[in-house]
Specification:
The protein is α+β, with helices and mostly antiparallel strands and 306 residues long. It is built from eight helices and eight strands. The strands form two sheets. It has a four-stranded antiparallel sheet with strand order 1-2-6-5.
Length: 306
Amino acid sequence: MFKSYKTLLATSLVAVMALFAIVPSASAAQHKFIDVNPNYDEAVSFLYEFELIKGKTPTTFGTDLNLTRGDAAVILANVLGLDVKNAPDAGFKDLNSRVKGSVNALTKAGIISGITKEKFGPDLLLSRGAMAKFLNLGFGLEDFATPTPFTDAVGVFAPHIEALYGTEITGGKTPTTFGTNLNIKRGEFANLLYRSIIFSMYFPYAESVTILNPTTVEIKLTEAAPEEITAAELAGAFYIEAYYTDGSDEELTFAGTALSADRTTLTVELSANNSLVGKKGTLVIDGDIEIDFDYETPVAHPIETK
């Protein structure tokens, strides 16, 4: 599912997702927007909490305001982690300094295009059809395209609408219309962007955990990790705590990581200050898997005699 320009999305957001252990909920957020109702709270909370999106003012998100093409470009480039400083100039003459880097980076990645060769139209309102294109190409959803019942899912936006429909990221405005030419509002875009992130994220789960020795833990994954994810990134997605019999506890950190050839087994070397040598207690992985350990008393091996 991942594409070359999406590697940064995978590497940055997998750590974010790990903070939740489950799909993030609105309770995790600290935004103070008074115009965000429960229909949008979970999405806005997530995007705001991790600085992926901003409000129109300190107390308003602008939920019911229409979204411009320029603002959508800034938000999407930020979410995808694209290099907005060094992207080559896309040739659009109507870009201001705030949106130019984002538009250039998205154009280089093949995610967006202008309304003409020299005009991007940053101040024009974003339509639902264009939104579908942004999200489909931004998150690589093409393989999930499914025929739709929408009579207005035609023309250049048709395959993009089919992709969002196939992933169930969004439906139509009515049972037979997608609303292709309708302008999309900021709240609605936040919801669809959030759903696209959740759909596209690879989040690793542990099938089992084995403590090989006081400094080495082996995690068997439920499925092979994608090629784009490194062992270090995988390790960062797991939250491992040690609860000791003396009543203390700590989060364990890693000094080294390795991934098996079939990408199903992650081995982590514990940091020196997290070694289990001389300790006894229980490891808890992602709040779900528990495994006891006892390295408190050294094992005495019998002396061989001749």
